[in-house]
Amino acid sequence: MGARMKKPLWVLFFFVMKIAINEGIEFVFKMNLWNLGRQADMWELIVTIICVGILVFCMYKVHTKLFKPTVKRKIQLMDLIFVFVTYIALRFSSYLIYNLWSSWAYGTGRSKLVDFFFTANLTLTTDKFIFALDALELVFIAPFVEEFVFRGFLNNLLRGKVNTFIRMSIVSILFAALHFTYIHNWIQFIYYLIISIVLFLVYERRRSLFDAILLHSLSNGLLVILFIEIPRRFF
Questions:
Q1: Arithmetic mean of pLDDT, 123-140
Q2: Among the residues of the chain, which ranges form H helices?
Q3: Rounded to whole angstroms, how far apart are CA atoms 63 and 10?
Q4: N or C: which terminal CB in the chain sees fewer CB atoms within 10 Å?
């Protein structure tokens, strides 16, 4: 499968496929082409899980075949602790840079420290399927797809062709640019650049996508959704 297409084309292919899946599913269900009525949200969730599941599986297979990744060592408890501590540090930096500094400099929205740490960026809804779709996008789809594309494919594609700093810079700038809908000024761009650099370093530490995906998922609100949002909304 991987041998039939050049490596750079795989990066582009999976990036385009992620967009096509998102836009295609949104179009089909927004236009109500299947006339599903009240079951539309449930079926949108099911179709999304199936399509993204297939996409992630294909990315894993192609990534394994193209780059033959070798993890430096098996994961240990200290690695999980390292990822968690890094997540806490990222959250504090997010509050200071993305929230406070941006608010002081440009008047963007500002949250209290407690609200910032214990609230996920989810749609306000009591519909369990809409909630599940939003949560899935935040803590599963985005971390898996983005880490495979940026740290998995693009990073390893550039490995050996440019030095580490250039490789990190290219991957980080493109990752930050992808999140333009969340960026309203150069300060917030710097924050996304920092996130990407940290994810790059975490990946390179063991050369394991698991570490980067876990950190990405935590940063997107995994613990908040599991232990705060779900009980608060549905129990």
A1: 90
A2: 7-30, 40-67, 77-94, 102-106, 113-118, 128-136, 142-146, 155-158, 164-178, 186-206, 209-219, 222-224, 230-234
A3: 9
A4: C
For the whole prediction, is pTM greater than 0.85? yes
- For 148-165, write each residue's pLDDT tens digit: 999 999 999 999 899 999
86 with 198: CB under 8 angstroms? Answer: yes
**Cα–Cα distance, 171 to 169 (Å, whole number):** 6
Q: Which two tokens stand for residue 171?
A: 């991957």
CA atoms within 13 A on the CB side of 137: 16
**DSSP conformational letter for 72:** S
Please name the residues in contact with 142: beta carbons below 8 A apart, sequence gap of 6 or more: 216, 220
CA 48 to chain centre: 16
Classify the phi-psi angles of 221: left when phi > 0, otherwise alpha if psi is within -120 to 50, otherwise beta: left
- Give the chain's length: 235
Give SS3 for 149: helix
Long-range contact list for 128-131, CB < 8 A, 24+ apart?
128/234, 129/41, 129/42, 129/44, 129/45, 130/41, 131/229, 131/233, 131/234
**How far does CA 80 lie from the centroid of its chain?**
18
Q: Which of 189, 215, 174, 214 is nearest to 90 (CA)?
A: 215
Q: How far apart are CA 199 and CA 87, in angstroms?
A: 10
Domain residue spans in the chain? 71-234
Q: List the structure tokens of 85.
A: 């501590």
HEC states along 163-180?
Answer: CHHHHHHHHHHHHHHHCH
Which residues sit opposite 132 in a β-bridge? none
